[in-house]
């Protein structure tokens, strides 16, 4: 395993982290007695495999159902000083509720402290306000830190780049969990801002949210060869020193195996990546056109600025992936989350597209004349059964 300094925390962070949202029994709390022995055995085997590999960062959240409770059956049996344990608590309007939820997490984990506490899902201006206002959740977290129950404080986010940068600019957080990978590089300026503040940078779900790379389309496999899409994406992320660790959402011990192959290529990434990056870029241009690929995102409105709350940037992005790389299954999964994911994946699908006048909100786009039809085509290609977030299933 390789390790990187996790910003001003000075923690030696493995370049892969063991994410805790896929090996738990249920997304809802149940009593410990209800958890099947095979589920618990699988979780413990996954943690043991993680530690064997040198992946000593175990990341979970109060919102991950029975994850904390099940981890609490194994973490206290392990050498505490060798572990980096992170949990995450959603910001609440009343900081007392935030503190109460943290106490429940610590009780489930059966630990005296966590190394990293993240304010989970600072995705909207309101949630940022709940976090950083006087007497808010950040103040509650700082009190926990003074009590020795938390070592370092950060935040996780699915919010806009602008909002992420606002949170970083407070200089009150030690690290950030955010999305950034090959198919979605929009948050790079936020990573640069985090680097300027010497914050740790944790990449959320690069293999699942980053393209469902465990089951990639054949076209993507061919374009990434001789690397697998997972290894390519990992290598792409880790060649940037500003990135410190990538989450591996392991559901079973074997889920680490493909990721480990990345380590063999880190020293020769400058030779391996350029031809793959060139192929991916040219493949997209061949199917979508150079002008579109360079300018499709320019002047697009946010859902709040769009009639019907339509999420035009996401719709066009998913269309691009579907056409350029045959990533239709991934695009369908993400598209049908629109309208179902609350602030975790905001905006609506094109269900009501025919009734909307989009021209005023598209005035700044160089492609305003053709985007309405492209959106209609996208809806026809990707619409289907609505998809719920994992935590709602």
From TrEMBL:
<protein>
    <submittedName>
        <fullName>Aldo/keto reductase</fullName>
    </submittedName>
</protein>
<dbReference type="InterPro" id="IPR020471">
    <property type="entry name" value="AKR"/>
</dbReference>
<feature type="domain" description="NADP-dependent oxidoreductase">
    <location>
        <begin position="21"/>
        <end position="209"/>
    </location>
</feature>
<dbReference type="GO" id="GO:0016491">
    <property type="term" value="F:oxidoreductase activity"/>
</dbReference>
<dbReference type="InterPro" id="IPR053135">
    <property type="entry name" value="AKR2_Oxidoreductase"/>
</dbReference>
<dbReference type="Pfam" id="PF00248">
    <property type="entry name" value="Aldo_ket_red"/>
</dbReference>
<dbReference type="InterPro" id="IPR023210">
    <property type="entry name" value="NADP_OxRdtase_dom"/>
</dbReference>
<dbReference type="InterPro" id="IPR036812">
    <property type="entry name" value="NAD(P)_OxRdtase_dom_sf"/>
</dbReference>
